[in-house]
Amino acid sequence: MSTGQLGSEQRREEEGDRAPGLVEQVNALASGATTSVAATRAALDRIDASQPTLNAFKVVRRTKALAEAAEADRRIAGGERLPLLGVPIAVKDDVDVAGEPTAFGCPGDFPPAARDSEMVRRLRAAGAVVVGKTNSPELGQWPLTGGPAFGHTRNPWNGDHTPGGSSGGAAAAVSAGLVAAAIGSDGAGSIRIPAAWTNLVGIKPQRGRISTWPAAEAFYGLTVNGPLARTVADAALLLDVAAGPHEGDLHTPPPVTVSDAVGRDPGPLRIALSLRIPFTATPTTLHPEVRRGVARIAEALRRLGHRVVVDDPDYGIMFGLGFLPRSMAGIDDWMRKVPDPSLVDPRTKSNARTGRLLRGAPLRAARAAEPRMRRRVGAIFDKYDLVLAPTTATPPPRVEGIDGISSWATDKVITAVCPYAWPWNVLGWPSVNVPAGFTSGNLPIGAQLMGHDNAESLLVSVAAQLESVLRWDLERPGKWW
């Protein structure tokens, strides 16, 4: 249930047991209203209490995080100011944190990472305290977060349902108020999908905006890192802090500061409302309650002065060929890091085998086709400033929705529930999920604002406009965990 359905006394009690917003915590720490040790200990206590039920975290860094928080307090007392100094946040378990394993959802005994990834290094340089690493399905393959390595991560809005994936642990942690914000990754919607299903803002930035180093690129350019938060301002702040290249990165877009776009009027825009599902190999249908949610966003945009017209990008029937070889070859790459491949899901093994078959000429062809695909799909921006589309085709499935089924049956479920997000990963362009309301069963749904090259600032500006009138940030799940 949402907080609107709770009694006022229970609402006050639960709000006191949840993380304040990211910007709010920065201000509280800088003013001395709280300390990093207090904020970090509170976050760790919330995580520990929720683990048996919500199950958002793979790694919890209690001792190390508290030591880092104490050091942050010493620096604050000494007058030092940094964008996130002393603020506890979480990262997904596909990025390296020095001294912690990077299992990416897989079972087995993984060695601790020798050093931080570039993104984590930047978070630490900004003063953030990394309290833990959040759960992902095996190698980020599925939009439901579960597996033999850790069980199921559950949706704070309804524990019988998934928070989505593959950044499901990060989304569950933020939506439940365990932490104010988290970093996930998105290779086919893996930030936007769980954001949609947990009432969060999720930003899939331009390819290369946040470094994936020690990988020069992730999943052959499909996967990017990005923030999940309850508000646009919090997500924008975390994106700005984490953004920036490593000298070894293959993709280095021009720098932007997206926080400056929060509260900035973008002026009247031309927006294409696209409900047509991009080509899939199996039948898919847009759920009527998701359709109504997207229509609600479209109407809010019209009230804000924008012109919204029904129109669709021209994906073409061959567009999926730009995705599959890159995705499967990326799974094969990750499988080579797994200490005991015999422990992983049979579907993971099957996908890795497919990746080995596709990594030659098909992979080269997929990469070579990207400029043509960009021109074809990008023609929509000759007429419009951005595209509005559903983030998913359905509300969140039940947590066991793909348990114990075949690879083909799993693919059918995935294409049925999440056919909308993956094209922007092939193109490398930015997209932002915004909450679009709730189903009759009080399950969150979302819509995505989709832009051309380096359009994060425009998308953030429009998302902040929507938040100012729809106020999704005031909706919180009733605490059951």
TrEMBL record:
Residues 9-18 have a biased composition (Basic and acidic residues). It catalyses: a monocarboxylic acid amide + H2O = a monocarboxylate + NH4(+). Signal peptide: none annotated. Coiled coil: none annotated. InterPro entries: Amidase, Amidase_CS, Amidase_dom, AS_sf. Belongs to the amidase family. This is amidase. It comes from Rhodococcus wratislaviensis (Tsukamurella wratislaviensis).
